[in-house]
Write a structure and sequence with these properties.
3-stranded antiparallel beta sheet; 95 residues
Length: 95
């Protein structure tokens, strides 16, 4: 029965550094590390009092976001919001 392997903090740091060097050597400078796209069709929230009188309403059209990270450290981020409407029935003279 083999004893478990135990490493010092310095040995762990050295292993981590070796892993990063190996990964860097295998990736070309134009490699993509991450490519995420998210789209939400629409979203609506209506807050009401216990008496069912409206307090606030939030209605959002389609939202899209994207994030791309490259091996050279560069990245691109995008966000688009088709529409946003907020109706406030709490603050006087705003609705």
């Amino acid at each position: 029965n083999d004893a478990p392997i135990s490493l010092t903090v310095d040995e762990m740091k050295e292993l981590e550094e070796l892993a990063f060097k190996k990964a860097d050597a295998q990736l070309s400078k134009d490699s993509m590390l991450c490519d995420i796209n998210f789209t939400l069709g629409s979203f609506q929230v209506n807050l009401v009092r216990s008496t069912l009188q409206p307090l606030t309403s939030l209605e959002m059209g389609m939202v899209s976001t994207s994030f791309k990270a490259n091996a050279d450290g560069s990245f691109a981020f995008g966000l688009s919001l088709l529409s946003l409407e907020v109706l406030d029935n709490v603050t006087r003279n705003t609705f």
